[in-house]
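Class prep. Sample record?

___
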Amino acid sequence: MSTEPATTEPDEPGGRADRAPDAGAPEAEGTPDDHGTPPATAPTTDDGSPGVTESGDAEGAGGTTGATGGPEDVADAAAAAETGAGASDLSEAQAELAAQKLERERIERRKAEKKGPITAGAKLSGTAADLLAAVRAVEGGQKPSATVFAEPEPAPRRPAPEPVRRPQPVAAPVAAAPSGETVESVRAVLTEGGAPQTLAPQVAETLGEGAGDLLREDPWQLLRVPGVRPEQADGFARALLGAECGPDDERRGRAVTVWLLEQAAVAGHTALEVPALTAALAQRAVPDPDEAVQSAVAEGEALIFQDALDDAPAVTAATDAEDDEEDRERPVRVLVGLERYALAEESLADGLARIVNSPPKDDTADWASAAGSAPRPAAELIRAVAGHGLVLHTGGEAARAEPAALVAAARALGLRAWAATHSTDGRRRFAALLDAAGTGGAAPADANTPADAGESGSPVVTVGGLLAGVEGPGRDGEGAFALDLLVVLDAPQLDVETAAVLAESLPDGARLVLSGDPGVLWSAGPGRVFADLLAARACPQVSSRTPDPGPLGELVSGIGIGELNQVAAPGKEVVIVPVRDAGEAVHRTVQLVVDSVPRAFGVPAAQVQVITPGHGGAAGTRALNAALKERLNPGQGRFGGFDPGDRVVHSPVPGRATPGRVVRADAEGLHLECAEGAVVVPKERVETAVRHGWALTAHQAVGHRWQAAVVVLPGDAGAALSRPWVYTAFSRAERHLSVVHGVEQTLPRAVAEVPPKPRTTRLPALLKAQVPTAG
């Protein structure tokens, strides 16, 4: 690993003379500027109050890379959940959302079939029993008592039902905008309460018709609008209600409970344990947190669950040593979650259990023959897939050749095998591996292969395109994918909702392979599906022994096991550029992108990607993009800050980032050229869906690779670093990596000591009840 002195390059315009002072810690990834409400139209005041322990990594709509904080510390990231008004023409992203909406409706129908609350433990006492009794009271049509509770009886979880095939999704029209009358009524209430009138369209869209009356009746409904914080809703409520407003108002406690659960989802949790939730409510000045949780459950705004803690010793209430084992109580944890994510996680567990428990098609002999003729690294994967419906495969970039060999072998057997990646760039790279494996674009005679299935008709699609029905094999008469094998690459990027739709869309007897690098950052959306499945050991796991080549591969492999090694880089594949402050970091980054890397390695600036921990701060994406635009494509930014030729990243839905370039702007909106083709972003969505893209965060960059990467680590970024962040950022480069280094010993300490931030999920417990081999 070589070190480039800070003085080897001459000063350039826009460099040292333009240094900004260090502005403190970088803004956490996932602020309103990601995908949500712009600061100009939504309050964004932070009060810095303490909260639940941070446990999420997702960016954009999925979470934050900040070092500390809990649901309340990612409040600004809540704006990422807003998708805004869509284009008049149905886009791939909108079609995907429509498909997911249909799946959620199907999940709700299945939930209605259940005869009782979900139970996975035994007798409870104290607050846990009170909360569960509240649920039973609601199910009986009664208001739960705050003092008298019935002890819940344990009930076995019903087996996974035969899936109900949903019909092939049909393009749904874009949701109608709220009427002008509704917006005006909301605007009047906002004015009366002292809130910005610019929030009126968002409030009307969020609360629907009658939003004005609803907001006047319950001012804390304002918390449902992305970007609004409890202290802002409190001020609004005081202005409307006057002396009637108080911290003990039941409406406030219920609204803050739901808000905290939404922030937890942004941070990656699918549910929160009751003690963590009540502690966060107390920090938000809710006098009776238990009552607030009960009220949210009673009104159907949250669901409560209990999951057995199998690792904990059972507790015996009786003193007789000869009591039956049935009298021993199994410790449980009680969780509260939003219905949307709770039901998605349940549906995912049901779908995966069906895949694991249903025997695959009887073609073992053919698979054995394929394994015998496959390259040795891929043979183990092929043999595992031969006899199992669900298989997990782990490995880095070079290990992708193994699932490529699997897809090639399956298609050679005449099976309908498809692969899905999370980005267009990933699809391109995997299609090249398929070509090398000998499958090319040929499809078996019985495969339903549309002309736009993938690159050059190859059996590789994107997950979004597959779910939207615009790519891939299509669906059969029962609504299931018309395939025999589906290999999903970049599996750590699967959130619970996307994974649930995929699992439930597989036909009986089909095989599912989830393949990915467990060292990268987790999904932007709630859940940690791939990590949960690896921990549950519910199916065969194949770990690749194929290392990534060269100095870059050696460096990244060491980071994966917690070691930041100094590697030999004779061709300057890895270069360290020391800097003293954030201003110098910006200056040196511009030099590297504009001059040093193109001159030394022949890599054009368009193939050099800058990656930094956050959007804010003196060396965040905003500052770096401004400096790079000044050098590479100066202009006045006449259309929402953008000019033709600007390098951008488009986020059509929260959590998805697609690099592109501005072509032009007109009355229709901002015209972009992205990897998947031409995209038109309506002018009202430009500010929330498009960012400059010379510099990205690691969460935006995951799933993509570039010829060269410049990772910027200013001195104020140390608190945001973790092993997954460093692993993800450093592994985005194919040929050359420059590290603009100003964090000194914080970097090796983060690699060695800072693991992924935990997420609270229920998938392992749900699988345990349905898959005998899980454990």
Notes: Residues 181 and 493 are 41 Å apart (CA to CA). The chain is about 35% helix and 15% strand. The first strand starts at residue 2 and ends at 3. The longest helix spans residues 92-112.
